[in-house]
Amino acid sequence: MSTEPPEPTVSLPEGSSSAPSRRTFIATTTAVGGAVVAGGLTAGPSVFGAEPAEAADAAPSSRVTLTVNGERRTVTVDHRTSLLDLLREHLGLTGSKKGCNAGACGACTVLVDGRRVNSCLTLAVRLDGAEVTTIEGLAKGERLHPLQQAFIDQDAFQCGYCTPGQIMSGVGCIQEGHTDSPEEIREFMSGNICRCGCYVKIVRAVEQAAHGK
């Protein structure tokens, strides 16, 4: 009994009396194979599975009321919204900068109930009833906060991107009483990065605002 596989059968074009040429063989088998594959895809179930997925549920949100720079504000926010995005995107307070968005640079520093926080890491939904102060809320009319004026006097900035966070952190540092020496100021301001390298002048500005030096 022969174990050889059967020879493939290919129909010759009508009127042909000789064996198929290589070109005819390829064209015929490709057409037949393509029809089988196409037929399988048409008749069978969808390769990608099935019915379209249902639309995802809307993300949960809540109404939050805060006092921002002395003004009471009520907004509805997604539970994932950071305080930084609430300030910038919902309230239009763009002084607080988005630097690393990971709590590593301090450009987004604001005061919450008098304590400095990285607003990019703080969920807005957790701050209902809180009092928030941003760089826009430091000046009293045309009169700058003493630390804002000290930054000008000491030329304690260059590109200015980190400056709002530096000033807010400096205000917190002064309020916390961590200004007894330049070394202490550097330690308690170490979470605020200045990529332009104005650290010496920043420390001097904090000293000036804290002690009138």
Polypeptide structure, described:
There is one protein chain. With 213 residues, this protein is of the alpha+beta class. 34% of the residues lie in helices and 13% in strands. It has 6 helices and 5 strands, in the order H-E-E-H-E-E-E-H-H-H-H. The protein has helices at 22-43, 83-90, 146-153, 163-176, 182-188, 199-211, and strands spanning 61-68, 71-78, 109-112, 115-118, 131-133. Strand 1 and strand 2 (71-78) form a beta hairpin. Helix 3 crosses helix 6 (199-211) and helix 4 packs across helix 6. The mean pLDDT is 85.
Supply the key terms.
213 residues; alpha+beta; 5 strands; extended
In terms of topology, how is this protein built?
Blueprint: H1 22-43, E1 61-68, E2 71-78, H2 83-90, E3 109-112, E4 115-118, E5 131-133, H3 146-153, H4 163-176, H5 182-188, H6 199-211
Parallel strand pairs: 1-5
Antiparallel strand pairs: 1-2, 3-4, 3-5
Helix pairs in contact: 3-6, 4-6
**Tally of separate helices:** 6
What structural category arises from helix and sheet content? alpha+beta
Biggest beta sheet summary: 5 strands, mixed
Q: Averaging pLDDT over every residue, what do you get?
A: 85
Low-confidence stretches: none
Q: Compute the number of strand runs.
A: 5
